[in-house]
Amino acid sequence: MSKNESHSRIFVVLFIAVFAAMLGIGIIAPLMAIYAVNLKASGIWLGVIFSAFSLSRGILMPVVGKFSDTHGRKNLLLIGLFIYTLSSFGYVWSDTISKLIEVRLIHGVASAMVVPIAMAYVGDIAPKGKEGVFMGTFNSSMFLGMGMGPFIGGVINDMAGMDNVFYVMGLLSLFSFLLILAMLPESSAVEKGKKVVFATFREMFRNDVVKGLFLYRAVNTIGIGAILAFLPILADMMGISSLRIGIILSLNIILMAMLQRPFGKLADRRTKAPLIIAGSCLAALALFLMPFASGFYSLLFLSMVMGIGGAISIPAATAIMAILGKKYGMGGIMGVFNTGMSVGMVLSPVLSGVVMDTLGLNYVFYIGGVASMLGVVIFYHYLNK
Prior knowledge:
By secondary structure, the protein is mainly α. It is built from 16 helices and no strands. Helix content is 84%, strand content 0%.
């Protein structure tokens, strides 16, 4: 098998496996907040439930990423998908808020071994000058899974109940595990005998671009992160059905998925920073305007605008990290980048929960939009130091 054929096989296997795993996670997206509220969770506890996943994920991702640079990626990916499968069934047994938080923490541990490791695999095989299209195309697997999931989850919940949503999530994770086990070779970048690029976190953060992207990702996600936890509640208060809530979330992410590859190609041909700034500003504006929506169609429109903003910014950001990964270690740099998102996802639900309990639901979106814009300002600052 030629090098190109081997890389194509790796890419296809990872694309399918990550798509299935993210589809499993996506089917609970529109229902998790409602499930938690049914367990009598207040706004603050709702925030803690959502933050638990990102907390354990964020703590472990940089460590796991660096470990994969020297000890191999495949086994870590398999362990993560196996824990994904077990934790999926754990949701069914979570009949209290404390149990639900425990399962979310375990689920976050699994995610730390899946997303950055898969991204590192793709970064390893991306040719120089094509990081945008490779990372953008791969990103679409995650967004397609997350985008189709809410619609499917809404259908399953309406027809068969919440428990079956979690069972389907577990089966999809198991499929990904078996596919990786049978068909994915170890990453050639970390095979025994090859020189491994390795840098400490201190060395990484001496680079202003790494620092700027990390802080941008964290602060921007504080705003954007509010959408998963609180948009379903906003839509529910407008009298929108769970099926239509699923459509709103699905089209947001599916549109983002469909545009990842073309904007990835654009990122390879153009300066990447302006794409990050423009896309992030568009998404922040849509988030700020969501409380002004009058019903399903206006909320759907704003959600789609937000998806377009993400499609413009994310391929450019991940392409920059893939380029930096060849200098500092692909697993470590992808772990750092995704940890930035996890920091935002930890803070966002808790802060948004406090805002909801003290100022009202609408202010979750107002403050979220402002926070997202602040992330852009921070990125611009470090870019021009």
